[in-house]
Specification:
The protein has 278 residues and is an alpha/beta fold. Helices cover 47% and strands 14% of the residues. The structure holds zinc ion. The site of zinc ion has 5 residues, from loops. Its EC number is 3.5.1.89.
Length: 278
């Protein structure tokens, strides 16, 4: 009887939390994370750096949905395609389309030094160089487009990458590739002269919170302090649909993960301090 009461209580809180999330899709809050420094909501370019195709749908979809809902341009830089390049690239493109990201904003690398798997260390200096190249190429592309379309660009910063988002030092699951990507972005932030670019990391939570589904929104709101932001997923069904595009990965335990993981419902982002020593 006690177990039944506990089960019913958890189910009620689960449903109430889901209602809170769905309610926020009808009455969205403007998180300060989505504002630029001037406090305005000018449309910006954000670079999401991930290790594998499916990271965007499994872990970062609340952030992507919040940004795209407000018209910001989210660009994805995926460092590895798991040794089955074309298949996983196609899956990433299809998932990105569900997440409202145009094809030209998605880059998936198939680099011999960045193959998927445990025990394969990815060099942080090489990763930082790739991030730098991507940001430089984007800036060139923007200048070219503005010239081609005869547009006025007030300063290059308006068209450049505004924020980088990636994993934190634990990488949600502890996967070494996620952690290496974090180190690569940190290395880039430490080395770059482009001080206007901010980097933010997805905060890893403990195992109980990780599988508490929508209930975690309350703990996320409560735990936010300092330079942290909590972004609720306004379209959790879209996240599920995006992950289902990764057919080579779409097995029963990932279906369960996407349904019960708190990362489907909320992301907590923390600013990476570019004064930290690696
Ligand atoms: Zn991954």
């Amino acid at each position: 009887m006690e177990w039944f009461l506990i089960f019913v209580s958890v189910a009620v809180v689960w449903l109430a939390s889901l209602c809170k999330i769905l309610h926020s899709s009808f009455y969205p809050n403007q998180s300060p994370f989505l504002n630029n420094n001037a406090g305005s909501i000018q449309k910006k370019n954000v670079l999401l750096v991930i290790a594998h195709p499916d990271d965007e749908s499994m872990f970062f979809s609340p952030t992507i949905n919040q940004l795209t809902s407000r018209g910001h341009n989210v660009h994805i830089l995926c460092m590895s395609t798991d040794g089955i390049g074309d298949v996983r690239k196609e899956e990433l493109y299809r998932a990105s389309a569900i997440l409202k990201l145009p094809l030209q904003q998605v880059t998936a690398l198939d680099h011999p030094d960045f193959q998927d798997g445990f025990g394969k260390v990815w060099n942080s200096n090489k990763l930082a160089k790739i991030v730098e190249k991507k940001i430089f190429a984007h800036a060139i592309d923007m200048v070219y487009q503005s010239l081609f379309h005869n547009l006025q660009v007030a300063t290059p910063h308006h068209q450049s990458i505004w924020k980088i988002i990636t994993f934190d030092n634990y990488g949600v699951s502890g996967h070494c590739n996620h952690r290496d990507v974090h180190q690569g972005v940190r290395r880039f932030i430490l080395d770059t002269s482009k001080r206007y670019i901010e980097a933010w990391e997805l905060v890893s939570s403990n195992i109980v919170r990780k599988y508490s589904g929508p209930i975690d929104i309350w703990l996320s709101f409560w735990s936010v302090k300092g330079e942290m932001h909590c972004l609720v997923n306004e379209h959790p069904l879209r996240s599920y649909a995006a992950m289902s595009q990764h057919l080579s990965q779409w097995v029963w335990f990932r279906k369960l993960f996407v349904s019960f993981s708190s990362y489907t419902y909320v992301n907590t982002l923390r600013k990476i301090n570019n004064g930290q020593v690696l």
